[in-house]
Design brief:
Blueprint lengths: L3 H17 L4 E6 L8 E5 L10 E5 L10 E4 L4 E4 L10 E9 L5 E13 L15 E2 L1 E2 L2 E2 L5 E4 L8 E6 L7 E7 L4 E3 L4 E4 L10 E9 L10 E8 L15 E4 L7 E4 L16 E4 L13 E3 L5 E4 L9 E9 L9 E11 L7 E2 L7 E4 L7 E8 L10 E7 L6 E4 L6 E6 L10 E10 L13 E9 L11 E7 L7 E4 L10 E6 L6 E3 L5 E4 L11 E10 L6 E11 L8 E2 L5 E4 L7 E4 L1 E3 L1 H5 L5 E4 L3 H6 E5 L4 E6 L7 E11 L2 E12 L20 H35 L12
Parallel strand pairs: 1-7, 8-12, 11-17, 18-24, 26-32, 33-39, 41-48
Antiparallel strand pairs: 2-5, 3-6, 4-5, 6-7, 9-10, 12-15, 13-16, 14-15, 16-17, 19-22, 20-23, 21-22, 23-24, 25-27, 27-30, 28-31, 29-30, 31-32, 34-37, 35-38, 36-37, 38-39, 40-43, 42-46, 44-47, 45-46, 47-48
Length: 732
């Protein structure tokens, strides 16, 4: 009979020990393991908070310091470093503690039981079970170690897992499972598992075996047997889902985090079967490239940017293998894929394809809006928003003579003329056009290619000379003598450069022209000319200083019949003056003073202006009667000077030309002509008059100064006399 106090002590110790000491961890290692080492066994239940300290592993007294076990401080896994032999040692009892440098225990000790499994215990690659004999000592059950069963064990069922025996007499056994499980016990005390176990469904069972007599009464407390379902590495790591590509900027520095792969393993947490390591399966770097584009942390699965340069627009497929069992042989693995897209940044400044443009010549009279040059710029960025450019003129265009025209999304810019050019103001223009990126630039600033120099040379334009008429006509009798003045060719702009005149295709040599004045004369008698014929020559005018610039006009000579010996005597018309602006008076032109034909009744004379268009434009001729005509100004304003107006007088078949000299001048209100007169003799000039006025003013000033000086001296003398010398006034 056991004393009651001993039972109380046993129960109290049983309640205290689980709290004072962590539960023992159990792990099995196959002997003569042929995989890679180190082999990760089980993850230790380290405290969740980060604690500075070192892991200390201790074991059996006969285990040397260079024993086959170690602890990975980074992951917290217990690992074996070499092959184990069951014949040499079947079990290892280990303890793991976390200690400070001075030996203070921060966590632990954590007991670990490592069981070396016999090679013959392997059945179809699954862990086998052990048979445990249980006996009764003094009517009590001997406590049993937990039974470890492999999940999905491929053996015939029911499968024997333990044997219990109660030696106290007739007995039959009753089994209860918490939670209910596929277990049973027979009359001989043999415990069975009736089907495969699945750790995902239930990882641990508590079996209670009760020994009862024939009356159903319990002999003692039930025997408790813990059955632990061992994890089988039957779940491959599951890759995380990445729906869309991961984007990183082009110039990301090495070490920049790209993503983190967190594969999931449904095997037992903390077991080697769920310990995942990662390995990058991407190909080696391209030939000539330095380093790798990406780096992978094998433990955390973190992907970072490597030291190889990245190019915008690249789409890189990263293949990462996630393997359980810490990557050891026999583990399962999955290949995870992540697409990384290298996004563009605005790190390229736009540049002109040609930064030095050859000089461009523009005539001085080029119209505003004329296209000067088209410049093209390029931008190496890929993003359309980073390729938008802005152009400007920075140098030598203060007056805004030139401007730029471009479309917002175009890489071409047109340089156009905005204002009229002047050779005298500037014979050349040097323009510096700069191109900038509209978006903010990242990285180095613009280089020398961001500017283009355009030199515009202004060509001086001298307009060709222009004559006052497009064509000229003159009527002359065939009997006109040599040296007779026919007409004068003049430029339309009297202030233009001097002209030099010449005649072209004067085949008969009848005419000549004065080179400077433009007067056309008969060079010789008009022999061979017939009345009614026309003779056409070409008059050419050239600038004296620019012989290449010229103008021409036709000159048509109409030949008239020579007057007969009985030609009438035309009355002499004295020189008269007419006022400009035009007033209501003119010049009376009379016919011949004596004409036998008129007396004979052969009809009157007719008067007409000469064929010169200028004469016909400036003058008006009106017949008064058969012998007189009235000449007036046709325009409101005619240039004030002496004019020679040719009048053609005709009678029957005979024609004469009468040259009327008229002075056109400005007039006063009385209609008298005002002419310029010279300076009267003896009259002072403006300069002399100013000198006389200034001299007179100076003389007056000197005279006034002398008077005031005299008065001042006299007053001072009176003040200097003594008082007694002043005569007293008599008082009456």
């Amino acid at each position: 009979m056991v004393p009651s106090w001993l039972w109380l002590l046993y129960l109290s110790v049983a309640q205290v020990l689980p709290e004072a000491q962590p539960a023992e961890l159990y792990v099995e290692v196959p002997e003569n393991y042929g995989g890679n080492f180190p082999l990760y066994l089980i993850k230790l239940p380290l405290p969740p908070e980060e604690t500075e300290g070192k892991m200390v592993l201790s074991g059996n007294p006969d285990m040397t310091a260079e024993g086959p076990f170690a602890v990975d401080a980074g992951s917290g896994f217990l690992l074996v470093t070499r092959v184990l032999d069951r014949e040499e040692q079947a079990e290892y009892r280990l303890q793991v503690t976390l200690e400070t440098e001075d030996g203070h225990v921060l966590w632990g000790p954590q007991p670990v039981l490592v069981h070396v499994k016999d090679e013959n215990d392997q059945a179809s690659g699954h862990q086998a079970t052990a048979t445990v004999d249980v006996s009764v000592v003094e009517n009590t059950w001997v406590p049993l170690d937990p039974v470890h069963l492999a999940e999905n064990l491929k053996v015939p069922y029911p499968h024997h897992i333990a044997q219990v025996h109660w030696s106290g007499g007739d007995v039959h056994y009753h089994l209860e499972s918490q939670p209910p499980g596929p277990f049973d016990v027979d009359a001989e005390g043999t415990l069975y598992v009736t089907k495969e176990l699945d750790r995902e469904s239930q990882a641990e069972y508590l079996l209670q075996v009760q020994a009862q007599n024939t009356r159903g009464e319990d002999y003692t407390e039930p025997l408790e047997l813990r059955v632990v379902v061992m994890d089988e590495n039957d779940n491959a790591p599951v890759c995380p889902l990445h729906g869309s590509p991961i984007s990183i900027p082009e110039l990301s520095p090495p070490g920049t985090k790209v993503t983190r792969l967190l594969a999931e393993d449904l095997d037992a947490p903390g077991s080697p079967n769920s310990y995942i390591v990662y390995r990058l399966l991407s190909s080696e770097p391209e030939e000539g490239a330095e380093g790798r584009a990406f780096k992978l942390d094998s433990t955390s699965g973190s992907v970072t940017v490597g030291d190889a340069p990245l190019q915008a627009g690249q789409s890189i497929l990263l293949q990462v293998m996630a393997a359980d069992l810490g990557g050891a042989e026999g583990g399962l693995s999955s290949t995870c894929e992540v697409t990384v897209t290298i996004t563009d940044i605005n790190d390229h400044a736009p540049e002109f394809t040609n930064s030095q443009i050859e000089p461009i010549s523009l005539p001085e009279d080029a119209e505003p809006g004329t296209l000067v040059a088209t410049l093209t710029a390029t931008d190496a960025d890929l993003e359309p928003a980073f390729r938008l450019m802005d152009f400007a003129i920075e140098v030598e265009d203060v007056e805004g003579t030139f401007g730029l025209d471009w479309e917002p999304d175009s890489s071409h810019v047109q340089l156009r003329l905005l204002k009229n050019l002047s050779y005298e103001a500037a014979s050349s223009h040097k323009l510096v056009v700069v191109v900038r990126s509209v978006a903010e630039l990242v990285g180095p600033g613009p280089g020398p290619g961001a500017t283009a120099t355009v030199t515009v040379l202004v060509e001086r334009v001298v307009p060709p000379p222009k004559l006052d008429q497009e064509s000229y006509e003159a009527s002359v009798p065939v009997s006109t003598p040599a040296g007779s003045l026919l007409l004068t060719i003049r430029p339309s702009d009297r202030m233009s450069s001097p002209l030099r005149f010449s005649l072209v295709n004067d085949s008969e040599g009848w005419l000549c022209i004065k080179e400077v004045s433009g007067e056309v004369h008969t060079a010789r008698p008009l022999q061979g000319a017939q009345p009614g014929d026309m003779y056409t020559v070409l008059v050419e005018a050239q600038y004296e200083d620019e012989p290449t610039l010229s103008a021409s006009a036709t000159l048509v000579i109409h030949f008239l019949k020579a007057p007969s010996s009985r030609a009438p005597t035309l009355n002499h018309v004295p020189t008269r003056h007419l006022c400009t602006p035009r007033q209501d008076h003119g010049v009376v032109i009379s016919g011949p003073s004596e004409d036998p034909d008129m007396a004979g009744g052969h009809g009157p004379y007719s008067f007409a202006l000469g064929p010169n268009p200028t004469v016909q434009r400036d003058w008006h001729l009106q017949a008064l009667n058969g012998s007189h005509a009235y000449l007036t100004l046709a325009l409101h304003w005619v240039e004030p000077r002496e004019h020679v107006v040719p009048i053609v007088v005709s009678h029957n078949a005979r024609m004469w030309q009468l040259l009327i000299r008229v002075i056109v001048c400005r007039c006063n209100v009385e209609g008298q002509c005002m002419r310029k007169v010279g300076r009267m003799k003896g009259m002072p000039t403006k300069l002399s008059a100013v000198g006389i006025l200034v001299g007179t003013l100076m003389a007056i000033g000197i005279f006034l100064i002398l008077i005031f000086t005299h008065l001042s001296l006299a007053r001072k003398k009176d003040l200097d006399q003594p008082v007694d010398s002043v005569p007293l006034k008599a008082v009456v």
